[in-house]
TrEMBL record:
Ranges of residues in domain CSC1/OSCA1-like 7TM region: 371-643
Domain of life from the UniProt record: Eukaryota
Keywords from the UniProt entry: Calcium, Ion channel, Ion transport, Membrane, Transmembrane, Transmembrane helix, Transport
Record Pfam families: PHM7_cyt, RSN1_7TM, RSN1_TM
Phosphoprotein is among the record's keywords: no
Region annotated Disordered, chain positions: 720-744
Membrane topology: Multi-pass membrane protein
Lineage: Eukaryota, Viridiplantae, Streptophyta, Embryophyta, Tracheophyta
Family: Belongs to the CSC1 (TC 1.A.17) family.
This protein's name: CSC1-like protein At4g02900
CSC1/OSCA1-like N-terminal transmembrane domain ranges (all copies): 7-177
PANTHER family named in the record: OS05G0393800 PROTEIN, PROBABLE MEMBRANE PROTEIN DUF221-RELATED
GO molecular function, one term: calcium-activated cation channel activity
Amino acid sequence: MASLTDITAAAYINLVSILTFLLAFAFLRLQPINDRVYFPKWYLKGTRGSPKGSGVLVGKFVNLDVKTYLKFWTWMPEALRMPEMELIQHAGLDSVAYIRIYLLGLKIFVPIAALAFAVLVPVNWTGGTLDGMKDLTYSDVDRLSISNVPAGSIRLLAHVLMAYVVTFWTCYVLYREYENVTKKRLQFIASEGRRPEQFTVLVRNIPRSFDESVSEEVEHFFRVNHPETYLLHQIVYDTKNLAKLVEEKKRLKNWLTYYEMRFERNQKKRPKTKTGLWGLFGKSVDAIDYYRAELEDISNEEAAERDKLMRDPKCIVPAAFVSFRSRWGASVCAQTQQTSNPIRWLTEWSTEPRDVFWDNLAIPYIKLSVRRLIMAVSTFFLTFFFMIPIAFVQSLASIDGIQKVFPFLTPLIKMEAIKAIVQGFLPGLALKIFMAILPTILNSMSRIEGHTSCSALDRRTAAKYYLFILVNVFFGSIITGAAFQQLHKFLNQAPSEIPKTIGVSIPMKATFFITYTMVDGWAGIAAEIIRLVPLIVFHLKNTFLVKTEEDRQQAMDPGCVNFATTEPRIQLYFLLGLVYSVITPLILPFIIVFFAFSYTIHRHQIINVYNQKYESGAKFWPDVNRRVLTGLMLSQILLMGLLSTKKAAISTPLLLALLIATIWFHKFCKGRFESAFVKFPLQEAMKKDTVDRAIEPNMNLRAYLEDAFIHPALKGIDMKNPPPIAEDDNNSVVSTKRKSRRPS
């Protein structure tokens, strides 16, 4: 059991490792050779060029200006200096809302920590219960926790009152922050210029007709039902094969450009390549002629595939992007039911073009429901039975396991060096590998569910990952045994006993979570800023693979805020802070350091490094609010269970009332704010439309929207859709009688 001395030693070691990471970062970021690794966002924006070194050759790689090293610490104030509105313009609202999660943690836990250390720590320290138990091993940390308070003591009332303070303060901060982010979202949408997704609706589950093509069906339906506002539509093609050909063509063009540049530099000798694997094997040929021929072949294949898309009706999926003359018209369509059949002509707001997940647009409604049911069941079993495959692999990573499965390796693993590796290294490696591939597994499950945008995929993956962390990291660390053993134990006891079972174990795990916070939170965030893997990969690519300036741009790999995996991890620290703020307040300073340090680091990364793949306008904030409240409710339930073991019967109705109040607050926030994240007010839509008409009365909206939602593989390709009807005719009466195309 760790003591205060042990925790101090662990903190010292982690602080030294953090300082090492920061000093290494301060040195590496100043070197010209690393500039594209630590400032890629500015390169992508076109506002930064390669730094010019001094005249000497070494100056191109190493910064020889001694004065810059004396200001190595300036990156921290620079990261905090940029105003929030400027940061939104620079990086987007998603990025700003993400770092506000860390700010939310500071707003909640700094006042709570001050009050807890002023009130609860003296109450716990002077409890005297542990001093009277001669046969019990305990540490100074336990004396600072509720474990040191006698059962049935009036002192426990202080913990109940503290639970009320924590709840009301957390709810107040959450309300203010929810209100703030909601206002920023509405301001962000209002201040945005004209964007294609503001006028466009995604329509799915379009019924097939023998009389009309999908394109004709869509046009007919919207001309009849939205005659005043409908403008145009873009049907969706199954472009999987074409996309592969386009990527291959891009690769071949890159190689051709590289060899042509080499030949321009030295025209005395034409470059050669080999036709086999990786250009290292096979027959040696003229590189320029070879790649020109390959490019011509792939272009012919692309043309054939494109012709197939235009001629084969099976290549058209029952989905379309329908654009309207105004935001108001799009709002009405996106937020209403189109027919008496609620599973036909399903409409929803379109995301921005780069956020569309094209592969899922063709999934029918019934299949969608079945997929989501299967994935819900799979998520449950993955969460509670995750330790089974890990235990199986770890059993193979043992001496007995290897001898049983691979008996011919017995002489080898009996060697002392090999035996030491198998026993001391492989089991931990197996766990690391499974934990590393977990986000990929969860993301694949979210894809199967059929979500149509990358942002929705990330939010669903985050929900699954949060459940996994809650069960396997939090509860799994509190209660010994694998998750499925815990599940079996819970199913075989009364529901009222479950909070007691967990509550009794919580104080004993405080030291574990303190060290976990330092290792995973402090040192993990410090390792983020050094970008060791992108640094190594960039230099390897730059040395061996970069052939053109486009290659160098792609080698930078700025990355982005990975909401699907980072937000659930942040929520773990909210949960720990809320649970232990009343039980063992000693953990709070460590959590505060995590939030403050993470806020600074991620602000720097968002300004200089990350390049977001999409912009959803902080659509994830309702999930953030809901998970923090989930942590708050769990803390109340667990405290209720713990106090029931300390003969504080009066605490149960008081904490139950607090739990009910928290649930009511969640419902109130959901009704008050959540609609702003899923709907667009007609009033705001009309305002923006009116302003647009006043500023640009002759705007050709059709030309602006007609190619906005075309699959990237089809960009620049004329798909030969039926010619659009002139805009002057759009308000004319549309015949509802269809001409049959069936053979007579």
